[in-house]
Amino acid sequence: MNKKHKKRLFQILFLIFLILFAALCYKKRRGIINTFFKITNLEMPYELQAALRKTYGSYDQVIKIDSNLDDTLAVYENNDAASITTSIRTEDTLVKTSSQIDAMVQAELDSGNYSFREPLVVLNPYKISPLTALILFQTEEPCRVQITVKGKTESTDLTFETETAAAHRIPVIGLYPAMENTVILKLSDESGTVFETQEVKIQTEGMPDRLNDIIRPVKTAGSSAYPLTIVSGQNTYYPFAYDCEGNIRWYLDKKTANYGLYALSNGRLIFQDTAGYVTSTQKPQSTNLYEMDYLGRTYSLYYLPGGSHHEVIEKEPGGNLLALTSTLKDHFEDKIVELDRKTGEIVNELELIDILGKTFVTRMDWAHINTVSYQPEDDTIIISPRNLHSVIKLNWSTKEIQWILCDPRFWEGTGFEDYVLKPEGDFTYHFQQHSSYQIAADLDNNPNTAELTLFDNHQDGNSDVPYFEDAGESYSIVYSIDEKAGTVRQLKSFPVIYSKITSNTIYDEESNHIFSMCGWVPDSPYKGRKGMTYEMDYETGEILNQYTFKYTFYRAMPMNINYADLCAPMEIDESYIKGSLRPSVEVSRSVSIPEEILTEGVSFHITGSVLYTKTLDHHISQLIFRGVNHTYVYDSTDIPQFYEEYLSYEGDIPIPLSNLEPDTYEILVVYLDTFYRTGQTFSIS
User: Fold this and answer.
1) Strand segments (E) across 12-164
2) Residue 4: burial class (beta carbons within 10 Å; 0-12, 13-18, 19+)
3) pLDDT tens-digit profile of 175-200?
4) Residue 127: helix, strand or coil by DSSP?
5) 3-state DSSP call for residue 38?
6) CA–CA separation, 258 vs 309, rounded Å?
7) Which of 120, 155, 521, 552 could form a Cys-Cys staple with 114, CB 3.0–4.6 A?
8) Torsion, CA 406, CA 412, CA 413, CA 417, rounded to 10
């Protein structure tokens, strides 16, 4: 072999070596880069951390597309609004089914067939609230009706009175399960004089097994500031309410998503539904929010494109909704949006990274906002980013920080030190707090201060700080804040059992009681019990009522029943499905139809003009709607999944079809990185 051939062979071998070495370095790049940062003692930028993280799921694209996570499409319709022809199964919202039932109820009442002595009793009228009923009758003359649902003790009776009417829809809330309940009805005139009385007996069925032994009293005072208390969220998927004796008097036979129920000022609830979800970099988040009452009647469906978590709350009574959502941009649970109550349109929003920059962005769940509320007097919101151990007040219009409540050491060297409130008097700082709300009560007799309550979980596992002191317990805390002076005092701190996450504190001004709702108790002295609630006297700290729970929960709250609303027939908007969702995108490129049909792993149904695609998380990377003249792509490859365990989560992805041009479309899918036909078609006229 001459020198020329030897040189050529050496060059080829060297090139092969370089290729193999480069391939090895690429495969081992995480280890090499991690080693470099350890040796140099430098902190790896979060962007690099995210780029190096292993992803799980499927990401192949048949049509190359870069979608914008900020793009949304308004949905504002009812069940029958879409001009879609298809053999795909259609599914009604709870709004439509509630409205249909309510119309039948009203028709029965209008028939005139039922009198005070022979009323119609309808148990569980709206099919999802088994311990409720409606009593229907007419009276010859307009009158009021006094109603008492008898409890096992006098203090557990539930009583209300209706407005004057001749046709009566009497809502019954608070029946006991598996027994014959007594409901006392009294007719009275305008002066309040009772002129006729009768008892109605209502037999209920037993509860589902999942609710058996779900609550046990530890201590009861025989009465409570709250006649009924609701528990929901986390592993308490089916919400329920208990009385002061620890008896269940209400529950929903419908599963909620992770965060359960949120109270509204009109006596209704926001129900976080499991029907739709959006993929995330961690657990999928619910996109569907129902407005519901305690009978189970449902009035509106709101779509939230980034999914919801931790909080949906009225900005002001009867006004717009503030909701916590996620940016989905390599981090999550760090965004706040304001929804127009009538349309569901997002009219204001805040990404926390735009306010604080990247100082604390060292992980995907860097902020973990778990509370938001609005103060109309100064156009501000108060938020609780748990992983920053902080409560922050911001102007909602300008997004300017007003103050930060936190251990000052956490914010040293960040450029935000001047916003941190200065402590006065004895002080123990909170860590990983929940439910931070400004309250109306003046608990320090100083009109120039504002009081704030929170639940201090008092743990630092998600954001380690060297000065954290593990007390082995959690606290309900009340602060007094002087905004002008930039100071804060700790008025009260009530020690309770250690609750690692979730949980909330409520101060009740009328009774002067404070409630600690400990939703995630890892080490209960009551074997196998996972939650605890306390009702305490604010002045003395004496525990008045205490209960343990079988499962973890997100929050507990009072049941504030609006009987006048429940007595009235339903009224719903013409367009009761509202909000917005991530859309599919039209592409100019045509695509060939694959030969193989997918026979399992994906299914579809349609509600209004929204296509729901049921599948396991991150198993679908693209849905392609191939029409005769148009092609659209719904792409989820820009949302990586970093947690393998969530690949087993099954749910429905809601995809709006209202932006598709009239055409006949076949649904194609990239499932587990393989391109399939689904055999499903639809036409838009």
Assistant:
1) 73-77, 84-86, 120-123, 132-149, 158-161
2) exposed
3) 999 999 999 999 999 889 999 999 99
4) coil
5) helix
6) 8
7) 120
8) 60
